[in-house]
Write a structure and sequence with these properties.
single chain; 526 residues; alpha/beta; Rossmann fold; 3 domains; six-stranded mixed sheet; 18 helices; binds 6-O-phosphono-alpha-D-glucopyranose; isomerase; EC 5.3.1.9; monosaccharide binding; cytoplasm
């Protein structure tokens, strides 16, 4: 029996407020720092590790966090979720994205269907489709092979798949498994679709229309935009488009597509990268085997998330430390800083994943909570960010916890030695330097040059960003966010906060406006 209680009603949370705050600067200086770096590390899937030495934790804080995990029943709640409980209370839905990559618990039957079987069946369908396209069995009207895949979708139907594609594009080129180049159209800004269409050979392109609901204005508009371009080029859109949607959506009934692959209402858009939403485009781009490795990495990480011992569960530990930082230390934001150019859009994906999930002010029963919930998430790859916003991170008045990600090896392997080090070594040297600089600071008589230190960070370290590591990385953040939602007692799986803007935009387009809305409409010439 699980109890869904607000964070501030838990005795272990009250205890945590009384645990002495760690002096990070002292803890990370000298031998004590070296010892922490060795000790405060949890193995992850794909040979990666979550290192939290530079977080404001010590054995006392960790003990208090373990009690909180226990009292908040985090492991039990995860179990409820993967065994098919109605965790998404707002929409009265199950939450099953983990089932797209493995069977963690009992068989989940919903609407009379074994859900694991359903997801596997869809995987088989899009894998076979991709193989036929690669083999030249599915071709364009002129009998020629398709060379490019263009995904049309927005939000969860864009950010995750796009970030994953970019993360593996160079790895796939290097490993000779880039089957098709992928492009993405998301914004309703006509310049987005026009620019992508100008950059591809439409006659040899397959367009993947992705919309879980099948009703998203931007995506339907861009579908028409693309169909128009295909018709103008003398092509039949039905021979160039496939759809990924939920079975209940209006798109599911249409015969306008070469093929259709399905997800369902039990997978939230932002959690859909491992479903057909990411699967179709990634299998077309890299081949089904690569997508399978990606799923394998995610499945292994999902299993680690089952661990009741927080010191062996990187997601639960990361979540607990995050809540400690947010609700007790009072930090408002979290920066995601991958030292990997391939992860250039990963922070953008995490913005949706985290902020759309936990940006809530009421608990899962609709009652206001008396504490802060999800942090503001932002980020950029390092070292680029260092030359941009790190000034505020080092010396600003806000302390922003940092989530670094780094890999020992590059993906392409081409490198140069300048002044006795490779570029990869320079990249890794920078992330090591930043962690210590943030934690330990540097005293200077000139206050302008003084670094206070005491600024916490963690790092996920891997050998190389390959499909398995990427799957594990994705699952890490998905599960961390899930555990934080459990701690805050919010429903992390709906997103009512995006509705109001959509309704008002419709009114503007229908010229049904007054007051400020009318004035803005006039200013923008609508
Ligand atoms: O996949 P779709 O149904 O087209 O939804 C696309 C996106 O739009 C919505 O506004 C939601 O905020 C997102 O969670 C969702 O991922």
């Amino acid at each position: 029996m699980v109890n869904w209680n607000n964070l501030d009603t838990l005795a272990s949370f009250q205890t945590l407020t009384n645990v002495k705050e760690v002096d990070l600067k002292a803890a990370m200086t000298g031998e004590s720092g070296a010892d922490r770096v060795k000790r405060y590390s949890v193995p992850m899937a794909a040979g990666m590790a979550f290192n939290y030495a530079a977080k404001k934790v010590d054995d006392d804080v960790l003990e208090a966090l373990a009690k909180l995990a226990e009292e908040a029943q985090l492991a039990e709640k995860y179990k409820e979720l993967y065994n098919g409980a109605v965790i998404n209370t707002g929409e009265k839905r199950l939450v099953l994205h983990q089932l797209t990559r493995g069977q963690l618990g009992e068989k989940v039957v919903a609407d009379g269907v074994d859900k694991r079987e359903f997801y596997v069946e869809q995987q088989k369908k899009f894998s076979e489709f991709a193989e036929k396209v690669h083999a030249g069995e599915i071709v364009n009207a002129a009998g020629e092979k398709f060379t490019t895949v263009v995904q049309i979708g927005i939000g969860g139907s864009d950010l995750g798949p796009r970030a994953m594609y970019l993360a593996l594009e160079n790895w796939a080129k290097k490993n000779d498994t880039l089957k098709m180049e992928a492009k993405f159209i998301s914004n309703v800004d006509p310049d987005d679709a026009a620019a992508v269409l100008n950059s591809v050979d439409v006659a040899h392109s397959i367009f993947v229309l992705v919309s879980k609901s099948g009703t998203t204005l931007e995506t339907l508009t861009n579908e028409s935009f693309v169909k128009d371009a295909l018709k103008n080029a003398g092509l039949d859109p039905a021979k160039h488009m496939i759809a990924v949607t939920s079975e209940t959506s209006p798109l599911a009934k249409s015969a306008d597509y070469l093929a259709a692959f399905f997800m369902d209402d039990y997978i939230g858009g932002r959690f859909s990268s491992t479903s057909a939403v990411g699967g179709a485009v990634l299998s077309l781009a890299f081949g089904p085997d690569v997508f399978a490795q990606f799923l394998e990495g995610a499945a292994e990480e999902d299993k680690l998330s089952m661990n009741e011992n927080i010191l062996e569960n990187p997601e639960m530990l990361d979540a607990l430390i995050g809540v400690y930082e947010r609700n007790i230390l009072g930090y408002q934001a979290t920066a995601v800083l991958p030292y990997s150019q391939a992860l250039s859009r990963f922070p953008a994906h995490l913005q949706q994943l985290d902020m759309e999930s936990n940006g809530k002010s009421v608990n899962r029963f609709g009652e206001p909570v008396n504490y802060v919930t999800g942090p503001v998430i932002f980020g950029e790859p390092g070292t680029n960010g260092q030359h941009s916003f790190y000034q505020l991170l080092h010396q600003g008045t806000n302390i922003v916890p940092l989530q670094f990600v780094g890999f020992k090896n590059s993906q392409i392997g081409t490198d140069v030695v300048i002044e006795d080090s490779t570029s990869q070594q320079k990249l890794c040297a920078n992330v090591a330097a930043q962690i210590v600089a943030f934690a330990c600071g540097k005293e200077d008589e000139n206050s302008n040059k003084n670094f206070e230190g005491g600024r916490p960070s963690s790092i996920i370290i891997g050998d190389q960003l390959d499909p398995k590591a990427l799957g594990a990385l994705l699952a890490h953040f998905e599960n961390k966010i899930m555990f934080q939602g459990f701690l805050w007692n919010v429903n992390s799986f709906d997103q009512e906060g995006v509705q109001l803007g959509k309704v008002l935009a419709k009114r503007v387009l229908a010229h049904d406006t007054d007051g400020a809305l009318k004035e803005y409409s006039d200013l923008l010439n609508i």
